[in-house]
Amino acid sequence: DEEKVKYLAPDKYWETDSAVIKEKAKDLKTPKQIYNFVTSYLVYNENKLNSASIERLGALSAFNSPKEAVCMEFSDLFIALSRSAGIPAREVVGYAYTQNTRLRPLSFAAQGDLLHAWPEYWDDTFGWVQVDPTWASTSGGLDYFNKLDFNHITLVQRGLSSTNPVPAGAFKKIGDSQKKDVEVAFAQELPQITATPEIELQASDNIISGIPTKVKATVKNIGSTSVIGESLMLTANRLKITSENPINLPLLPPFSNKQFTYDLESKSSLKKFQDTLILSFGDTETAKNIEIIPFYYLVMSPKFLVVSSGVVLVVASGLVLYSKLHKKRVKIFRDFL
Fold first, then answer.
1. Can you state the angle between helices 31-41 and 71-84, rounded to 10 degrees?
2. Helix then strand then coil, % of the chain, to nearest 5
3. Is residue 119 one of the residues assigned to a domain?
4. Those residues with Cβ within 8 angstroms of residue 314's Cβ, 6 or more apart along the chain or in another chain
5. Domain count of the fold of the chain
6. Half-sphere exposure of 111 toward its Cβ, with a 13 Å CA cutoff?
7. What SMART domains does this protein map onto (predicted)?
8. pTM score, two decimals?
9. In the structure, what pLDDT confidence band is assigned to residue 110 with cuts at 50, 70 and 90?
10. DSSP three-state, residue 131
């Protein structure tokens, strides 16, 4: 809630504290009502596109002069009315692809680059929702409230300030103010869509029976599209898996990876036996053979005997040395007396 309050404040071009804005906002309770009002009340002024520079009027001036609007005024008025009505809102500036500049015009001037501005409002269910009242008005009523198209490409979002950050194209050297810097090109061929998961199982070759152990599982998506609604599952014949299994992965984005740890247990046994761990994710599987050995195998192993002998030798040497030093100290003490 504290975060959302930041997007209700007035600013230079969002005069939510204006009496006329407040009064109008009382009649408009929902984002849809505000959107409908802005699209029908403001009139897009195509003549302003012929100007060397387009002055931004702000919400209040747009409200008072509805026939002087371009995309900035449509956005500013929507944001100001929304904020005044208690609905968090902010501005988006970006590139909008259009094949018909009369029906879907661009009018945000960034020193030589012609971009587009549109607002977005906060919805407690869907988060930030982008709408375009400008194109809804100029296109004669196309629905840009319920289904904004993919022709809108965000460059910056303005919420805490109505002027910052500035978009791409606004950073220019002196003398290059009319130079076009923002170039957007579209792929001629779409890449082949692939969802290619890879899985890896990291586990010791030997497990001591009766002692809990852990194994690590990694799942990677090396494809170009997300893997949706799959589960990572570990199976074994004799080992008991005590951690969560299967593990549901609602979404694994392209070129991402996730790592998980499984807890395993085995019953105490006096015999050595083998088991096979099988890790599966969708149609992908990998397996690893595990040998479960009794604890006494560890005690009788050559390495353990060598280490144990070394420890015994060190301890014995220490005791002998301590005994000699102790006797020497006792003799010195007696001679002193």
1. 140
2. 30, 30, 40
3. yes
4. none
5. 2
6. 14
7. TGc
8. 0.58
9. very low
10. coil
